[in-house]
Sequence to fold (250 residues):
Amino acid sequence: MAAYKRYRKDSPVSYALGITLTFELLRYKGEYVNKVYVHSELKEGDAWDKLQGLCRQLDVEIVKTDKIFHVLSQKENCYVIGEFRKFESRLSPGRSHIVLVNPSNNGNMGTIMRSALGFGLNQIAIIRPAVDAFDPKVVRASMGAVFSTEFVYFDTFEEYRSQYGERELYPFMLQARRSLHEVRPEGVFSLIFGNEGTGLPEEFLQIGTTVIIPHTDRIDSLNLPIAASIAMYETTKESIGRSFGGFESG
Fold:
């Protein structure tokens, strides 16, 4: 009889909790799926038929059991869990990147992945120490975007810079020299963000072009996912707009 255990960072596998996340897993990382677990209360219907079809197509075993749900999910409406092997990613030197320096919150990491996918910046460098991108909480917060994101960990920013430094670098800091509306990247670039509580260290004032997002004095700062999303929008709005044929005014 299988003994199910909670997720651990050193485990070779992780989990997509819920049928929507499992669909994303099967679509975009199907070759890494070990099993799909189904709760006895999952009702038959279109979703169940679709799940069976995808698993059959990918030769993924469906296991009907309630026990793993008691261990992994506290949500009452979670009736499907996808178990997958952790996968390796690569960053492209010809693509723009998001750089997260010491991110410490699972939910923020997942939310940033979701925004990055939406703005076509789904190549993310993560500087340790940092949260585990394979944690099921990150997977859930990303709404499955983690399965369409290339992310690579580095021990230091200098390690990242030595491999991908030939680009425009934009650290986001409160002491920055430029306002976001003044920044117009012309080539390949990296948007660099610090820890949720402490931001970027002072040495980043000497790196690239430091940027601040202006806001009223009614708040001290924007939280990390919001700041990152605003920055991604501003730096990609022209290219995204062209891909949609432009936006109508009025």
In short: The chain has two domains: 13-85, 97-242. Residues 246-250 have pLDDT under 50 and may be disordered. The helical segments are 19-29, 46-58, 67-72, 106-118, 136-141, 157-164, 224-243.
